[in-house]
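Lecture 7 notes: from sequence to structure.

We start with a single chain of 164 residues. Read the sequence below before looking at the structure.
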Amino acid sequence: MRSSPARLLAMAGIAGLCLAPGAGQAQPHVQHPPQGRAPAAPAALTPAAPAALAPARPELVRREVVTGMPRGEQQEVHVYTARFAPGQATVFHSHRFPVTVYILEGAFTLEMEGRAPVVVRAGESFVEPPNVRMTGYNRSATDPISLLIFYVGEPGTPFLDMVH
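Now the structure, written as tokens:
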């Protein structure tokens, strides 16, 4: 059962301030509710009626059919954040399963072996294919980049395999 703000205030024993008649000074005053009833909440503590808003809905950023997902009974979900300084790059690597990146800030350049470079900008996403050797770059000389990385793999599978 959820308690109203007034009931929570009464249960917590929170004191209010009231003006003493004729004194002109604020005096502490504890208001005790009648037996079995909580007092009405002060106007400042009464929640305003919510505006008639439509329910929040997710906005689709990317939908893509992929191959190479794990097929076992269990999968392990990894969610990472990464920040690249201007000019910084990843190691040369590959992933055993698809990786989805979402760019929060800046522009991320991904160079994948045998493919044209891809630039993914803030608010965009990209699915990196599995078993493709690649390096990611921040090609800016002045601006950092921030991104979210989503990876689903078999339990215990490393996020990336370095290529030597």
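Confidence is low (pLDDT under 50) at residues 1-31. Keep this in mind for problem set 3.
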